[in-house]
């Protein structure tokens, strides 16, 4: 999810001479769900993490 975070930072004004985005996920939901599960987040937090 680093490519998504980098893109968001650039969009919000972070300056960079160059960027390289390697295979950003087309659907970040499975990664967010796995992260939420590994952090033992309650269902309400997991639902709030949906990107849709």
List keywords for this structure.
mainly alpha
Question: What would your notes on this structure say?
Answer:
This protein has 52 residues and is mainly α. The chain has a domain at 25-52. 50% of the residues lie in helices and 0% in strands. It has three helices and no strands. The chain has helices spanning 2-11, 29-38, 43-48. The chain is elongated and about 40 Å long. The mean pLDDT is 84.
Mean pLDDT: 84
Largest sheet: none
Going by helix content, strand content and strand pairing, the class is mainly alpha
* β-strand amount: under 5%
Distance between the termini: 16 Å
Task: Please tally the β strands and state the result.
Answer: 0
Summarize the helix and strand pattern as letters: HHH
Shape: elongated
Unreliable spans:
none
CA-atom Rg in angstroms:
13 Å
Percent of residues in helical segments? 40-55%
Number of helix segments? 3
Summarize the topology.
Elements: H1 2-11, H2 29-38, H3 43-48
Provide a short characterization of the protein structure.
The protein is an all-alpha fold and 52 residues long. The chain has helices at residues 2-11, 29-38, 43-48. It is built from three helices and no strands.
